[in-house]
UniProtKB/TrEMBL annotation:
Entry's Gene Ontology molecular function annotations: fatty acyl-CoA hydrolase activity
NCBIfam families xref list: YbgC/FadM family acyl-CoA thioesterase
Protein family according to the UniProt entry: Belongs to the 4-hydroxybenzoyl-CoA thioesterase family.
Keywords: Hydrolase
Presence of keyword NADP: no
PANTHER family reported for this sequence: 4-HYDROXYBENZOYL-COA THIOESTERASE FAMILY MEMBER, ACYL-COA THIOESTER HYDROLASE YBGC
Protein's name in the database: YbgC/FadM family acyl-CoA thioesterase
InterPro entries, sorted: 4-hydroxybenzoyl-CoA_TE, HotDog_dom_sf, YbgC/YbaW
EC number assigned by the record: 3.1.2.-
Length: 150
C-alpha cells in the first residue's frame, strides 16, 4: 500500500498567537436531542490543547516517560453559548493567557464559522510522578511566553 496524505492524523497549528484545531461533529458526539453532549466539548478542547503542545514542540509522551512531569487540568470554567449539531465543522481556538511557574492558563473557544459556541478558561498544572505541582521546564515556559505574544 502506498503512503498517502490521508494516513496521518489531523494536526492543527498556529496562526499568529492562536492555535487552531478543526474537527467535525459525528453522531457519537451528540445526545438524544441531536446536539453535542456538553462533556464532549471538553474532549474537543483536550485534543486541541494536546495538539497545541505538539505544535509548540513540547513532547508530552517523552516528558512522562523520562519523569519530567505531565500536565493535568486543575480547573475549567466553561460557558456554553450555542449548541453544535451533527455534521457541524468546528474550530477550537486556543490561546495562552498566562504562564506561571507550575501552570499555564489557556483560553479556548469552540467556533462554528464566525459563531462562538463555547468560552472556556483552563488551568493546566504541571505535576511530577507523585502528582505534586512542580516547575515547568524552562524551555517550555519560554515557548508558552513566545506563543502568548503571538
Amino acid at each position: 500500500m502506498q503512503p498517502s496524505e490521508y494516513d496521518r492524523p489531523y494536526q492543527g497549528g498556529f496562526v499568529g498567537g492562536e492555535h487552531r484545531f478543526a474537527l467535525t461533529v459525528y453522531f457519537e458526539d451528540t445526545d438524544t436531542a441531536g446536539i453535542v453532549y456538553y462533556a464532549n466539548y471538553l474532549k474537543f478542547m483536550e485534543r486541541a490543547r494536546s495538539d497545541m503542545l505538539r505544535a509548540a514542540g513540547i513532547d508530552q509522551r517523552a516528558a512522562k516517560e523520562d519523569g519530567t512531569g505531565v500536565y493535568a487540568v486543575a480547573e475549567v470554567a466553561i460557558r456554553y453559548l450555542r449548541p453544535a449539531r451533527l455534521g457541524d465543522e468546528l474550530l477550537v481556538v486556543s490561546t495562552v493567557d498566562q504562564v506561571r511557574a507550575a501552570s499555564v492558563l489557556i483560553h479556548q473557544r469552540v467556533m462554528r464559522g464566525a459563531e462562538q459556541l463555547t468560552d472556556a478558561r483552563v488551568i493546566a498544572a504541571f505535576i511530577d510522578a507523585n502528582d505534586r505541582p512542580r516547575r515547568q521546564p524552562r524551555a517550555w515556559v519560554d515557548k508558552f511566553k513566545e506563543i502568548s505574544q503571538g
